[in-house]
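INPUT
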Amino acid sequence: MWRNKMSDNKACSCCGDTVELAINNKDINKCPICNQFGKTVKNTTVKHLVKAEFSDSVGGMNYLICMNEDCDTVYYSKNKEIHFSQKQVKVPIWFKKDADPKYACYCSEVTIDQVKEAVRDKGARKMKDVLAITGAMKNSNCEVKNPLGVCCHERIQQGIDEALAE
Ligand SMILES: [Zn+2]
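OUTPUT
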């Protein structure tokens, strides 16, 4: 399903625009390093995004991702026995403070700066303008390209909103 091409640039082909991740408030979901709550990420996403030399240690379970910008941990298992740091993952994690570049759309490698620039300098006002200008979400494959395993749509919209508010 996530391989479907977008038909009209209005909504993401992989998930529409109803992206939601459950944040579970149980301690079990806390990052073993910084002790903040993480979000659930599918096994297939983790398997694709850890560097090849670590993929064997991923196993078959789902993971959590640490959302703390200051914490170096990216993925960790619920039993906390396995965790992967930023260096062990193939892509910069956009919400971590040293991420460079900060991608908004991982599938088409469009950065948040390119999204904002489309709004600031190229007259984009809506999602479809930004997608047309930047080429974001052209080849949506968010499940294995986006570190959260979710559609980039929401992040792009955030970038648009931020640029419009400036
Ligand atoms: Zn953490």
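end of record. The CA atoms of residues 142 and 151 lie 5 Å apart.
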